[in-house]
């Protein structure tokens, strides 16, 4: 499973919209959409915050384990 699909999966498991996640991270909704479709990657500087919001570890996000 791709990184974008994992972001989508964990976001929806947490009942969050793209807008909700974007607001909490301080990025645009379009950025979340690009991550989920694989057109862009989240900046490494927000990975820990992204994982904290999604209630997962960085390993969960990057490898799906």
A few lines on this structure:
The chain has 65 residues and is mainly α. The protein has helices at residues 3-13, 18-25, 29-37, 47-54, 58-63.
3D architecture notes:
- With 65 residues, the protein is mainly α.
- The chain is built from 5 helices and no strands.
- It starts with a helix and ends with a helix.
Salient structural properties:
single chain, 5 helices, 65 residues
H/E series: HHHHH
- Shape, principal axes of CA atoms: globular
- Proportion of residues in extended strands: under 5%
- Low-confidence blocks of residues: none
Radius of gyration: 10 Å
Could you give the topology of this structure?
Blueprint: H1 3-13, H2 18-25, H3 29-37, H4 47-54, H5 58-63
Helix pairs in contact: 1-3, 2-3
